[in-house]
Design goal:
cell membrane; binds adenosine-5'-triphosphate; Rossmann fold; 10 helices; globular; ABC_AA/LPS_Transport; 6-stranded mixed β-sheet; ABC transporter ATP-binding protein; 4-stranded antiparallel β-sheet; 247 residues
Length: 247
């Protein structure tokens, strides 16, 4: 029996007269790494924004574990377990990875920000932050200034900050943006091994990465899901080849 974590039914989104997608049907299975691909402007980022609640759809519904979250705010969706990575902003760039992870953990646990609490009370979170940074190979950089770290490590830290929230669904919109092909592959290798078992939906342009690291792939084109399947199925799908891969 299938175990669907995230589902959309009849999801439509338009910006004024521009229909980005129309009646989108999508299902994410628990524990899978699922890639969304499609031509430029197909609506992949818009889809992620609608699923995470940053944008409201013009029609249709989003379900998390069977619960309708279409009207749930982005903030409450994070609490419910729909978490996306964000590019490290200027605030986090001027902090150390340890400080950033502590802020993420405090937010998750609904306690005051680390700077507002006595150091002693932070011990469990410091231990957890240490363990997380260690797991992701960032222990040696824990107290370095984030903006001084190589881009690959900054991208990895973005994943750690989202992963720290214990997502039910982790969404990544081009997590390897700005990295070289090799660094991108390295990031996905780490994602695949270190977050194995985490349900993950990612948008990615590099087809080598998609076909290597996704267990299933959905193709967004012409306003709907053109096909969903294993990398092998998508690679040999005639419609997909015509609409997308062939170009
Ligand atoms: N806030 C917005 N207002 C108006 N139009 C928008 C907005 N956001 C996106 N669009 C338009 O919606 C369409 C889909 O954009 P989107 O960024 O979701 O595509 P994408 O598949 O992620 O593209 P890419 O692969 O280039 O990142 C595009 O035509 C884009 O110009």
């Amino acid at each position: 029996m299938s175990d669907v974590v995230l589902q959309t039914r009849g999801l439509s989104m338009a910006f004024g007269g521009l229909k980005v997608f129309n009646g989108l049907e999508f299902a994410l299975q628990r524990g899978e790494r699922h890639a969304v691909i499609g031509p430029n402007g197909a609506g992949k980022s818009t889809f992620v924004a609608v699923v995470t609640g940053l944008l409201s759809p013009t029609a249709g519904k989003v379900f998390l574990d069977g619960r309708d979250v279409t009207r749930t705010s982005a903030r409450d969706r994070v609490k419910a377990g729909i978490v996306r990575t964000f590019q490290i902003n200027t605030l986090f760039a001027s902090l150390t990875p340890l400080e950033s992870v502590l802020i993420a953990l405090s937010q998750r646990d609904g306690v005051a920000r680390p700077s507002l609490r006595p150091l002693k009370s932070l011990k469990p979170q410091i231990e957890e932050a240490d363990a997380l940074l260690h797991k992701f190979g960032l222990a040696d950089d824990a107290t370095a200034l984030t903006q001084a770290l190589p881009y690959g490590k900054q991208r990895l830290l973005e994943v750690v900050l989202a992963f720290a929230l214990r997502p039910r669904v982790l969404l990544l919109d081009e997590p390897a943006a700005g990295l070289s092909t090799h660094q991108g592959q390295e990031l996905f290798e780490q994602l695949a091994t270190l977050t194995d078992g985490t349900t993950m939906l990612f948008v990615e342009h590099d087809m080598n990465i998609v076909f290597r690291y996704a267990q299933r792939v959905s193709v967004l084109a012409g306003g709907s899901v053109l096909a969903t399947g294993t990398p092998e199925e998508i690679r040999s799908h005639d419609g997909v080849k015509g609409a997308y891969l062939g170009h």
